[in-house]
From TrEMBL:
Protein name stated in the entry: Pyridoxal 5'-phosphate synthase subunit PdxT
Binding annotation for L-glutamine: G49, E50, S51, R110, I139, R140
Stored InterPro entries: Class_I_gatase-like (IPR029062), PdxT/SNO (IPR002161), PdxT/SNO_CS (IPR021196)
Pfam families: SNO
Family classification: Belongs to the glutaminase PdxT/SNO family.
Subunit structure, as described in the record: In the presence of PdxS, forms a dodecamer of heterodimers. Only shows activity in the heterodimer.
Name of the coding gene: pdxT
């Protein structure tokens, strides 16, 4: 596979920014809103946004079962911020009617770093991503409180009151970060995911 086709779940959130970043690292990126569009992709990005809204729209657009099936079949998926929440097996501080895809065996705390006014930027060293620490943008971000045995921790906060909190993980073909690489201009994480899609 020379040019992988990667969809961006285009129900709400940073869709355009992810499409631009994926295109910038050599993928063919396209928005996904319908099951037939999902059928045509080699990988999927679930963008940042509002996780409860994405959850509701996933049902409205009849994408929940198709995405569940593709994940179970090994589809590579990357979730950023709200996308991390959507991939988590367990969500703390979520709404009772909120449902995700439960692809990664982890417990995530929604809005763990605080409200919009508490958004911040910090360097995060990412395992498997060369070139030094990643300049991470956290906006009403979750963090990971627990990971299962099959989950690799790719990155943690190194400084400040949240030092040691897990903010990047991988389980098989699924990757999640609590920050927004699509807002930084640093394409290394998107390149990491595109390489994963090619390998899959």
């Amino acid at each position: 596979m020379t040019v992988p086709v990667i969809g961006v779940l285009a129900l709400q959130g940073d869709v355009r920014e992810h499409v631009a970043a994926l295109t910038g690292v050599g993928a063919q990126a396209r928005p996904v809103r319908r099951p037939e569009e999902l059928d045509a992709v080699d990988g999927l990005v679930i963008p940042g946004g509002e996780s409860t809204t994405i959850s509701k729209l996933t049902d409205i657009f009849e994408l929940r079962e198709p995405i569940d099936k593709r994940i179970a079949a090994g589809l590579p998926v990357y979730g950023s911020c709200a996308g991390m929440i959507m991939l988590a097996a367990e969500v703390l501080d979520g709404r009772p009617d909120q449902r995700g895809f439960a692809g990664i065996e982890m417990t995530v705390r929604r809005n763990a770093f605080g409200r919009q006014v508490d958004s911040f930027e910090a360097p995060v060293a990412l395992a498997g991503v060369d070139g030094g620490p990643f300049h991470a943008v956290f906006i009403r971000a979750p963090w990971v409180e627990r990971v299962g045995a099959g989950v690799d921790v790719l990155g943690e906060v190194t400084d400040g009151p949240a030092a040691g909190r897990i903010v990047a993980v991988r389980q098989g073909n699924l990757v999640a970060t609590s920050f927004h690489p699509e807002l930084t201009g640093d394409l290394r994480l998107h390149r990491y995911f595109v390489d994963l899609v090619r390998a899959a």
